[in-house]
Amino acid sequence: MIQSSYLIDLLSTITQRNRSGARLDDKRSARALCDLLLTDLGDVSFSKVSRALLAKYREMSGADKRVFFDMLAHDFDIDAETLAQLATNYANSRDPKTLAALTACAEPPRQELLRRLNRVAGATADLVAMRCDLLAMIKDAPHLAVIDQDFLHLFRSWFNQGFLVLRRINWDSPASILEKIIEYEAVHAIDSWDDLRRRLLPDDRRCYAYFHPAMPDEPLIFVEVALTDGIANNIQAVLAEDRPALAPEKINTAVFYSISNCQKGLRGISFGNSLIKQVVEDLKTALPQLTTFVTLSPIPGFRRWAEQVLPTLSEAESAKLAQAMAEAEDGKADDTLRGYVARYLISEKHKRGGPLDPVARFHLGNGALIHDIHIGADRSTNGLRQSCGAMVNYLYDLAQIDPNIERHSASGTVAHTRPLATLLKSHAAKTQS
């Protein structure tokens, strides 16, 4: 059920007031403030020190932030030798006091530092931004990844589903939120306010977002939904400027056509699964006539994979696939290309397990099945660049979600329809002949 925005608005006011009161007037070093924060301070002093450290971090240059993270990684790490001795002692004694000491020692002091920083209003957003900075540095400084483990541990607790608030985004939502929907849209770019209006204002369109009470003005993830008569097979038709709104009595299908994560600093924290389930429940309550819940999804890795496959094919098959890829850009459907898309989605596996395609991993892991593949379904520049214009429907059959999840988790089964199984079999026969 969608929750009232009153509490969110109130928390937003409090958060902004507290953040605006943070002043960079403490002359102590970041290291000194970190040490002080891990001591027993009174509430007033604790709040002042936390705000001073967060304000000091916000003012740091990139180089200074790197020095700060190096300090956290080295000076606020676990005491490995003491931890090893405690582990040995506990293995020999099974003493509860030794276990308590072992557990305390196993947590790096920097994790408690982050936890204490988060006690002041507005700090959660600062810490999410801090992790964003950290992630940008890890590639060149892999030793900093130990700090990311602390962020992940804490964020998975702080951002669990029990704390998330589902809000419907519509044309009457605050302009600051609408601006962020435009900014964060990651699948199908929103080109203008008119474009946004077409996605929010008609009765046959919906948009939902998750918010966290500690970040009331920042959507965490949002999904855009088209309410249609039948399963959509072309994104340009869904987003068409001159599209007439569908009469309520003709609506029978909810098409999830865009899911966008908004916070880079929350990478690795999963919201999509619970978001889809909660939106489905809300839509079922509001529109009992809905019988079908399906996506119209991009296939972001297909072209890259197809280009890697080309040199491995026979000369005739390589020429055939290259021609099919070129013709798809001109809007010509081709079963050759559909066959390769089916192979990519169903048969190709990631080195760490699961489907090779990241969107497929997400939806199949959530219990969906691959329903159909559409060539020429996305003629945008991005669609042609990523997938030669192909798109896919993932069907959420409510009665089959749990069995699909179990089979996918246990054996890696990629649930798909019989027509796609036939297509894949035919494709294999043609490429092997």
UniProtKB/TrEMBL annotation:
This is Malonyl-CoA decarboxylase (MCD). Pfam families: MCD, MCD_N. GO terms for biological process: fatty acid biosynthetic process. Residues 76-159 form the Malonyl-CoA decarboxylase N-terminal domain. GO terms for molecular function: malonyl-CoA decarboxylase activity. Residues 162-397 form the Malonyl-CoA decarboxylase C-terminal domain. InterPro entries: Malonyl_CoA_deC, Malonyl_CoA_deC_C, Malonyl_CoA_deC_C_sf, MCD_N, MCD_N_sf. Transmembrane segments: none annotated. Gene3D superfamilies: Malonyl-CoA decarboxylase, catalytic domain, Malonyl-CoA decarboxylase, oligemerization domain.
